Amino acid sequence: MSASLYDHDLYSWAMQTARQVREQRFAEIDCIHLAEELESMGKTELRALESRLVVLLAHLLKWEHQSGHRTKSWRRTLIEQRKRIGRLLDDSPSLRPKLPELIADAYESALRWAADETGMDEGDFPPACRYSIEQVMDPGFYPDTVIS
Fold it and tell me: How many domains, the chain?
């Protein structure tokens, strides 16, 4: 029954499965789907972190390369993304070692975003992220000059 419940009413299946775990009725648990949902939760956290890094990096690039267009909104975005990334990493510290790879992957999208929003060519930006993890996460870091 729980497999068909999973296919037709995910919320109800999740509530039922949670009850079964709490009541230690392990023989009744739909283990296959439970494992899939747990893996999906982990992937969701990873995607959320990468998405926030894209926004943060795009705004760092805009801040750095369009100093004459800086706004309070850009600053608030930098503050908010750093705060949210910090919370994600506090909740899932095992994601922290993945930051170098995630930043490298996120930078590609951030570069395209920054180029599109600024009207600049992608080639006007560094081809790879030159901000350190410490700089990316530092609430006081606002690049003032173009990195060469």
Answer: 1
Given a contact cutoff of 8 angstroms between Cβ atoms, the answer to whether 120 and 113 are in contact is no
User: pLDDT tens digits for 44-54?
Assistant: 999 999 999 99
**Hey, what amino acid is at 32?**
I
Question: What crossing angle do the helices spanning 31-65 and 99-118 adopt, rounded to 10°?
Answer: 50
Expressed as residue numbers, the domain containing 110 is 43-137
Under a CB-based contact definition with an 8 Å cutoff, are residues 30 and 17 in contact? Answer: yes
**Per the domain annotation, does 35 fall within a domain?**
no
Residue 113 lies in a domain: yes
How many whole angstroms from its chain centre is CA 84? Answer: 9
- Determine the pLDDT at residue 113: 96
Q: What is the pTM of this model?
A: 0.85
Structural domain contains residue 88: yes
In a domain, 19, yes or no: no
* Alpha carbon separation from 53 to 49, 67, 95 (Å, rounded): 6, 21, 13
